[in-house]
Amino acid sequence: DEASIHNSITCIATLLALGYSSNFIQEQIRKLSAVEMRLQLKMGINNCVIINDSYSNDISSLNIALQYLQQQAGLKPATVVLSDLLQTGMADDSLYEQVAILLHQYGVKKLIGIGKKMQAFASVLQKWIPNSQFYTTTDDFLQLAVQHSFQNECILLKGARTFEFEKINIRLSWQLHQTVMEVNLTAMVHNLNLFKKQLLPSTKLMAMVKAFSYGSGTLEVAQLLQFHKVDYLAVAYADEGIALRKGGIHLPIMVMNAENSAFDALIQYQLEPEIYSFQIYNEFHQYLLSQGIQQFPVHIKLNTGMNRLGFEVTELAELANLLNNQQTMVVQSAFSHLVASENTELDEFTQQQATLFEKAVGNFENQIGYKVIKHISNSAGITRHNQFQYNMVRLGIGLYGIKSATKDNMPLEVVATLKTTIAQIRQVSAGQTVGYNRRGLVKHDSRIATLRIGYADGFNRLLGNGNAYVLIRGKKAFTIGAVCMDMVMVDITHIPEAEVNDEVEIFGKQIPIQQVAEWCKTIAYEVITTIGQRVKRIYFEE
Ligand SMILES: *Cc1c(COP(=O)(O)O)cnc(C)c1O
């Protein structure tokens, strides 16, 4: 963010003035890490999104928070609830004029000013943000402003601590006693930067946001990635790309599986299809001809061993020939996919794929007469086969903090936490059973908790009958009986302090998602992408 750049430049200038060498400065600057912000993003009432920063309020932190608001708002109108600014050391009239201009520059559509100073400078603020209201205290606002005056907005709460904006946060937030998946955006940026560090500065990065961004929420993740300047996004189907464009994403987007019926949408929303066969090439070519469209960017997929989608290496000459005799398409990139980048035992095969790819694409470029972006590596490819980064890499699972290669020692941070709560607790005596078909036999008098999560939320039935545990008050509680559609029961006899509505961790920092995958006899990719749609995703930054 700009404030960090500013701070770094101040450091550099100071070090130069003190006579340090530029080599030394460059080394030290590398070691700087970003100051973590405590900005929290979550679903609010009436389809609003709330960004809560009710800890401090001064001009530089306001600037950062407004940047974040702009980044997250997408197409929702931006609203700011702002308290008086304290201890800024500036004269009030110039301070509040500066605040007004700043709000205006960041495209704020509505302002709620709270505090005596805010009220005193109402006319200046109103000049820049015509839609503004002012209240003397937080309690006044809570009493006078009705809840439904907020609709479909992105609302930044920015107040000095004494104004107790937590009260507003509680009022405007969706009250959750349900299953949620928390997505830690700070951890995601951390992971993104770890991967970037493995790349040459010239290597581009395509972020894979298919399957609802690996279950984490496509638009929110895409907005973050756009803000952090990845080069490309990729989705599996055109619909996913359309949702991104409608949400204000302007990065180039590759669509891996574009079929006939989606061609209109590709053009309308500037989505770049993967061309993987002569059939799809011909259909798209005909379509572009009929629409009179020229030079539409496409991506050529090569089969080097996966045997899923793609042209055979031997077909490339014919494809080049076709491409040379048309104006409808221009090849943006050529790529292939590694079969086993995470698998040490198959490294030789990976090497063969890369060799085949390099040679074939080299020839292809010569035949079509121009250079294209070449890419083959996924997450494990980046960490384990760094020499195959070519011009771009395609980062997927690693972004979400999940390691696919067991011997990968990257310090990735956990991004997703799946949580639920306790709905009811009961005593069940020895000899009774729990759940459908009497599968959970109670051997001695027990305390059983019913959780608000079931297989419809992605809590797999293989996790039932004591095959898995969840965490309640930091302690393991094993499942008992079969998993139901919307609920599951766990044994909490040894956790007497547990109460109704207690939080329950299903996976996260303490129960790695890989552990859950093992219990389900599958891989983490499947666990994360099969969390039900009705599970609310909550985004936050630390
Ligand atoms: C999903 C996908 C990736 C990303 O793979 P990860 O292992 O999640 O990094 C890369 N390329 C293609 C073609 C994909 O389908």
Description:
The strands form 3 sheets. Strands 1, 2, 3, 4, 5, 6, 7, 17, 20, 21, 22, 23, 24 and 25 form a 14-stranded mixed sheet that branches. The protein is globular, with a radius of gyration of 27 Å. 35% of the residues lie in helices and 23% in strands. Helix 4 (92-105) packs parallel to helix 6 (122-128) and helix 15 packs parallel to helix 16. The longest helix has 22 residues, at 347-368. The mean pLDDT is 92. The chain starts with a helix and ends with a strand. It is of the alpha/beta class and 542 residues long. Pyridoxal-5'-phosphate binds next to helix 17 and strand 16.
Keywords:
542 residues, alpha/beta, 14-stranded mixed beta sheet, nine-stranded parallel beta sheet, binds pyridoxal-5'-phosphate
Mean pLDDT: 92
Poorly predicted sequence stretches spanning 5 or more consecutive residues: none
Q: Which value, in Å, is the CA radius of gyration?
A: 27 Å
Q: Report the β-strand fraction as a percent range.
A: 15-25%
Shape: globular
The end-to-end span amounts to: 15 Å
Oligomer: single chain
Number of helices: 19
Tell how many strands the DSSP assignment holds: 25
Q: How would a crystallographer describe the biggest sheet? A: 14 strands, mixed
Q: Approximately how much helix is present in the residues? A: 25-40%
Cofactors and ligands: pyridoxal-5'-phosphate
**Classification by helices and strands:** alpha/beta
